[in-house]
Amino acid sequence: MILLFEEYQYPKQRLNEALSGYDYMCTELRNGRAKVQYVGYFFSKERDDSVFILPKVFIEEHNQQKLAFGKYLPEDIIFINAFENGAVKKIIDDSDHNVTRWRN
């Protein structure tokens, strides 16, 4: 799964890698960064993976740094794979992945 955040300024190379074949979704910025101005979900045939673009409200600013869910650098959690360790394992352990589940 690929996880992105609306309006977050990613390193251009990293965002192009994540959205390979869907480059038209990226807005290139002057500082070597790029962003996506959309929210939603689609299946990338090129990457054979799901792409989720969450609203910017999931980005919080702490000490002048923008963090996903108030804890993670968004570029560190772009590629979520159940078999990875590190940030992905921490997201699951912290139950932050529940943000995408429907609750009654």
Task: Describe this structure in a few short sentences.
The chain has 104 residues and is of the alpha+beta class. It has helices spanning 12-18, 87-93, and strands spanning 2-5, 10-11, 26-28, 33-36, 40-44, 49-54, 59-62, 65-68.
Structural class: alpha+beta
Please state roughly what percent of the residues sit in beta strands, choosing from under 5%, 5-15%, 15-25%, 25-35%, 35-45% or over 45%.
Answer: 25-35%
Report the principal-axis shape: globular
* Fraction of helical residues: 10-25%
Tell me how many strands there are: 8
Q: Strand order within the widest sheet?
A: 1-6-5
Element pattern in H and E: EEHEEEEEEH
Overall mean pLDDT stands at 83
- Computed Rg: 13 Å
What's the arrangement of secondary structure elements?
Elements: E1 2-5, E2 10-11, H1 12-18, E3 26-28, E4 33-36, E5 40-44, E6 49-54, E7 59-62, E8 65-68, H2 87-93
Parallel strand pairs: 1-6
Antiparallel strand pairs: 2-4, 3-4, 5-6, 7-8
